[in-house]
Amino acid sequence: MLLMPLSPLQAQNASSSTEDNNPMAPALDAYRAGRYEQALLIATPLAEKGNVSAQLMLGSIYNNGEGVPPDPEEAAKWFTKAAAKGEAGAQYALGMLMEYGGVDGADPVAARKYFKDAAEQNHVASQAELGLMYTTGRGGAQDLAEAAKWFDRAAAKGNANARYYLGTLYASGKGKPRDLGEAARYFRLAADQGQPQAAYQLGLMLQDGAGTEKSLVEAVTRFKEAAQKGVRGAQTSLAFSYLNGEGIEKNDTLAAKWFVEAAMRGDALAQDRLARLYFLGHGVTRDIEAALLWLTLTEQNGMTDDTLRSAMEPEITPEIRAKVAAEIEKLDKDRTSPN
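The structure assignment produced for this chain is given below.
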């Protein structure tokens, strides 16, 4: 998960940038207009004098790289000052930097503490993050009941991620009683807010009629929503829908397109099916070299397809084998390269 840009316009408690008694008003006006250098110039002396809103603005500007090169360490410095005074937005931002490695010495224990401090002030995004840390055991003990408590609070306030996580707890029966109907309900709420993993999970439930009425057509719609946002499982599921003509008109070309998307993200099943399409020439131009490449990547991912391997062997020349080996070596180097 990436650190979400923090907006001082959302996080600060200033009631209006036009109030005469608000020293941050000119900085906020400049920020709204995209004049970040001016906002920084105005906010810096105020932050140095202890103005919490100014400290939060500086943290946001340095974190987001607005008018300056991104500088997480400088951002953390200002967020820390504001967090020490109980500013929930700053506590959340520090938690994100600590949990997702945005600063030197990132520490999940510290992240959990910051999220908890903010969550107890009803900071909704922090409640969702804290629930996730209790779910995974990051930064402390795993406690699914505690996770569910925080997800409930955030979900009730409309947080899409919390609704998705609640859906997973109901689906698994961990932290919540197993209830596929509730799982589907929360997945739908989150999916309707644009949460891609929720859209994918809802699609699977619609496909099987689990916890909701079966609908292959809507399943495809949900797979598309998630696939377009890079969820590789959804891309594979969408490809199969096109391949089999389930919920949508059969289209081998579009099936191949989505298998490529998922295969490039390392999905072994998509890699195997793409290899088959290249071997058969369905949806793509028949290409034994490409088929062997994707089959080899499938096998490196721990999945075997002896039927396809046996069918291909008579057509694999030493030249094809050498070309694929060289391409695999190049891909391996690219994966291990620090850049």
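Interim note for the steering committee: Residues 1-157 form a domain with the Serine Threonine Protein Phosphatase 5, Tetratricopeptide repeat fold (CATH 1.25.40.10). The CA atoms of residues 62 and 70 lie 5 Å apart.
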